[in-house]
């Protein structure tokens, strides 16, 4: 199971992200787009939808999405709407296929094409085949678990910006371990809101806060929503903290990529994407892995594991899980 090459690993450790162009063949991206459009057409029913929008809370972290529809999406396929697709009176003002910002968070189990992708080989441009599990292993994971997956649609004209953030604030383990696999299913350009990254920030930007349930250990309906809380646990993966002296300013670097590219993103890396006001949409698929061996995943996290636990990403498991899934919500 080939992982990242030494050169790719060195770049990932240096920059905190890594672009693997042409990772997926066009036949795979087109089958994932077909599945996305099928879900929007056949599965999404706006007449019974709570009209939950995907709101990231902006710079002051207020009003992050946190209703029961969102909190209960860890083992379902659910649809989160674009802010500007709903008018002040609460009416959806776009066709449903053009109104969705995000589909999540259990595509990697409940949708066959997306499930297959977790085990699908890609090519690293140097003639080598790589699987997500092989990549995770080369990054040092012992028991990587896929804990969530999303299709993110930057809709034409109204595609919302994603403010600068670090994924481990949203997917916190003690110690931090999250890594994102982000696949472009369509070309992502400056015009339609590609990602941009603050290179090296994973080495100096600590995880200072976490998205948590206001009340933990209760049903989603009783959790009282979500809030950003100070992180009292470790703020870097073990051994990766470079310390205050290394703190850098730096400029965000745009990551324009073609459909089929895979982008690896370290959980401490600051990254963002801009609004899409162009007439061209941008659809991507992403899943995140966390380390299960020797880490703690607690009940305060907004995302709680499904009854069967987070998905084994295909790497042979060593040792036993430290997580007692029976302790989580029924
Ligand atoms: O695709 C985007 O625009 C943002 C995705 C992102 O930041 C993430 O998955 O962490």
Detailed description of the structure:
The chain is an alpha+beta fold. The chain has one domain: Jelly Rolls. It contains six helices and 16 strands. It has helices spanning 6-15, 26-43, 68-71, 107-110, 112-117, 132-138; strands at 17-20, 77-81, 100-105, 122-123, 129-130, 144-154, 162-165, 179-184, 195-197, 209-213, 226-230, 253-255, 262-266, 271-273, 282-291, 311-312. Strands 1, 2, 3, 6, 8, 13, 15 and 16 form an eight-stranded antiparallel beta sheet that branches. A hairpin with a 5-residue loop joins β4 and β5 (129-130). The longest helix has 18 residues, at 26-43. The model is unreliable at 316-330 (pLDDT under 50). Bound molecules: 2-oxoglutaric acid (AKG). The site of 2-oxoglutaric acid has 10 residues, from β8, β14 and β15.
Task: Walk me through the topology.
Elements: H1 6-15, E1 17-20, H2 26-43, H3 68-71, E2 77-81, E3 100-105, H4 107-110, H5 112-117, E4 122-123, E5 129-130, H6 132-138, E6 144-154, E7 162-165, E8 179-184, E9 195-197, E10 209-213, E11 226-230, E12 253-255, E13 262-266, E14 271-273, E15 282-291, E16 311-312
Antiparallel strand pairs: 1-13, 2-3, 3-6, 4-5, 6-15, 6-16, 7-14, 8-13, 8-15, 9-12, 9-14, 10-11
Organism: Coniochaeta pulveracea
Region (Disordered): 216-248
Pfam family, one: PhyH
């Amino acid at each position: 199971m080939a992982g990242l090459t030494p050169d790719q690993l060195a770049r990932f450790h240096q920059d905190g992200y890594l672009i693997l162009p042409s990772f997926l063949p066009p036949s795979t991206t087109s089958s994932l787009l077909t599945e996305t459009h099928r879900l929007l057409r056949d599965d999404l029913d706006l007449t019974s939808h709570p009209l939950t929008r995907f709101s990231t809370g902006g710079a002051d972290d207020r009003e992050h999405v946190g209703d029961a529809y969102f909190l209960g999406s860890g083992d379902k396929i659910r649809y989160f709407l674009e802010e500007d697709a709903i008018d002040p009176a609460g009416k959806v003002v776009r066709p449903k296929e053009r109104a969705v910002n995000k589909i999540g968070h259990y595509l990697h189990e409940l949708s066959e094409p997306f499930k297959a992708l977790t085990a699908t080989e890609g090519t690293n441009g140097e003639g080598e085949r790589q699987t997500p599990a092989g990549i995770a292993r080369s990054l040092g994971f012992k028991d990587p678990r896929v804990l969530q997956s999303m299709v993110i649609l930057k809709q034409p004209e109204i595609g919302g910006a994603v403010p600068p953030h670090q994924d481990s604030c949203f997917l916190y383990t003690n110690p931090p371990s999250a890594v994102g696999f982000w696949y472009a299913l369509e070309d992502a350009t400056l015009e339609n809101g590609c990602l941009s990254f603050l290179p090296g920030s994973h080495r100096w930007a600590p995880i200072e806060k976490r998205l948590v349930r206001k009340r933990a250990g209760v049903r989603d309906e009783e959790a009282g929503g979500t809030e950003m809380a100070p992180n009292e646990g470790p703020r870097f993966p073990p051994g990766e903290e470079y310390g205050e002296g290394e703190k850098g300013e730096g400029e965000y670097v745009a990551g324009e990529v073609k459909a089929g590219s895979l982008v690896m993103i370290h959980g401490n890396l600051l990254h963002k994407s801009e609004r899409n006001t162009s007439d061209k949409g941008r659809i991507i698929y992403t899943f995140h892995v966390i380390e299960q061996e020797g880490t703690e995943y607690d009940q305060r996290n907004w995302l709680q594991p499904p009854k069967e636990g987070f998905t084994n990403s295909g790497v042979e498991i060593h040792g036993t899980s430290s997580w007692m899934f029976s302790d989580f919500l029924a």
